[in-house]
Specification:
CATH topology of the largest domain: D-amino Acid Aminotransferase, Chain A, domain 1
Number of helices: 13
CATH class of the largest domain: Alpha Beta
Shape: elongated
CATH architecture of the largest domain: 2-Layer Sandwich
CATH superfamily of the largest domain: ATP-grasp fold, B domain
Largest sheet: 6 strands, antiparallel
Distance between the termini: 37 Å
Helix content: 25-40%
Radius of gyration: 25 Å
Number of domains: 3
């Protein structure tokens, strides 16, 4: 689960990590009062106005503005709040800015890149830092990879204090007495909050020699939210695709894509393979949809509802391997769903596994138009042909 910058900074602040401070604005009638509050708190007319959306590249897209005066702050805040912000991560459709963060303006001496994530290859958390901050780390990795330093943390093999000292050396922060404490606190925030990613870009040194998290991006493991009461309240449904939200209510794993071949599959691995084969035959998947290992009539029906809510879908490919789930039950679910939903797109069905022969018989004897297939390759090819 992604959270906003101001929420990520709140988490960091809970662990005594110095942050760029400020206040959130949710409506235009709060703008002038909040700007005045920030100016008074930090004894400066200059502030920074920052759009709060779940996407990077806000600055390049016009969603972050340094404002040296009250007038420019009011103008920028009114411009950014409610704008449709387009960045390299939002796509052409952009994201609506429903809240902005108005912060203190800091005099910056140096900028660094900092991130924490899990390295599956080493089965350890990894610090990733660079002396090139404030830019896309992908650009640094491609153009000057020698400027990126990694340090791993694993209780058995890689001690935390060793990793922290490695990144302090890499960033040249040995003279900062609080560096060890700050980076240790950031790691504790990352670990205790069940983060998939904690990124600070940039992490800065101010002219008065303070280490500050100027920005913060956090992605939380959604499977751990049951033990993260505070963080679970940070969930912003306005930042999510409505279809993905609806699918979640149905207990389905759905991600909308840009193609026109709807895919309904059980199991994430089989779903990925199905999409690959659709692309192999020249098609474009409209979605990732995993109906899970216990697919039944309601699951199939709800899966159809979600897939067909996307107007781009011109055919539907159902690829089910019956292990725990029985193929005959899936077949009955497909028939019932097609009848109730009055489908106007072609449907290709491939069922293998438990009771597959019975399932094929049920489909063949039904009075609905379905295209059956024996193999995943055949099924994908037929689904693509329907939209060609």
């Amino acid at each position: 689960m992604k959270i906003h910058e101001f929420q990520a900074k709140e988490l960091l602040s809970d662990y005594n990590v110095p942050i760029q401070r400020g206040h959130v604005v949710y409506s235009s009638n709060e703008i002038e009062k909040t700007i005045e509050k920030v100016q008074n708190e930090f004894n400066s007319d200059a502030v920074v106005v920052k759009a709060q959306i779940h996407a990077g590249g806000r600055g390049k897209g016009g969603g972050v503005k340094f404002c040296p005066s009250t007038e420019s702050a009011i103008e920028s805040a009114n411009e950014i709040l409610g704008m449709n912000l387009i960045t390299h991560q939002t796509g052409e459709e952009g994201k609506l800015v429903n809240q902005i963060l108005i912060t203190e303006a800091l005099d910056i001496e140096k900028e660094f890149y900092f991130a924490l994530m899990f390295d599956r290859a080493k089965n350890a958390d990894v610090f990733i830092v660079s002396i090139e901050g404030g830019v896309d780390i992908e650009e640094v990795a491609e153009q000057t990879p020698e400027k990126i330093v990694k340090a791993w943390v694993n209780n058995d093999t890689y001690p935390l204090d060793k990793a922290v000292n490695t990144i302090i050396d890499a960033l040249g922060l040995n003279s900062f007495n609080d560096a060890l404490e700050i980076f240790t606190n950031i790691y504790n925030c990352y670990s205790n909050s069940d983060c998939n990613l904690l990124e600070i870009n940039p992490l800065v040194i101010t002219e008065d020699q303070k280490i500050i998290a100027l920005d913060a991006k956090v992605d939380i493991d959604s499977n751990a939210l049951f033990r993260q009461e505070k963080i679970s309240k940070f969930h912003d449904t306005s930042e999510e695709d409505p279809l993905e939200l609806k699918a979640s209510e149905y207990g389905l794993n759905y991600i909308k894509l840009d193609g026109n071949v709807g895919c309904m599959v059980n199991g994430a691995g089989l779903a990925m393979a199905t999409m690959d084969i659709v692309k192999h035959h020249g098609g474009e998947p409209a979605n990732f949809l995993d109906v899970g290992g216990a697919a039944n009539v309601d699951t199939i029906k709800n899966g159809f509802k979600i897939i067909l809510s996307d107007p781009n879908v011109k055919s539907v490919l159902i690829n089910i391997f019956g292990g725990i789930v029985r193929c005959d039950r899936v077949a009955n679910g497909v028939i019932q769903a097609v009848k109730e939903l009055n489908l106007n797109v072609g449907v290709v069905v491939r069922l293998q596994g438990t009771n597959a022969k019975l399932a094929k018989q049920i489909l063949d004897e039904s009075d609905i138009e379905l295209i059956s297939a024996e193999t995943i390759d055949e099924a994908a090819k037929k689904a693509v042909e329907l939209v060609s």
